[in-house]
Amino acid sequence: MNTEKSSSTLNVLFCIKKHKLLKSGEAPIFVRITIDGRRQEIMIKRSIPAEQWNQAKECSKGKDRTAKELNHYLDTVRAKILQIHSDLINEGSPVTSEAVRDRFYGRNPEKHTLLGIYAEHNRKCRELIGREYTESTVENLIPENRKIQS
Question: What pTM value is reported for the model?
Fold first, then answer.
């Protein structure tokens, strides 16, 4: 029995976009997620003056309150990305940079089952009794649903 475990390499890197300065003169901060060589960028809606950014440490150089808050926020974002990566592995879902990005933004693709789709169809048909469907037509759908279940 081959019990080889598939793993994915994850790299989380915080950067600034020096060439796309905001009107305030600050550089927007983004996160680059790399999983198995495939990259995705996530804009985290934070910015910083370019001279205040320490790329080696991936954080703000300052020691004032706003710099500390920004660094704390960056730590929180990193922890969230690592948690999403861990959740995808535990769920047995495909672990891709796109999946991590989509989960980060809250775009979870809904999982549909055949029974769920059929139940939703039957519910809509019941609402249309008297307008588009007769009661006998809708009642004929129930045995079909039982066939799918077994």
Answer: 0.66
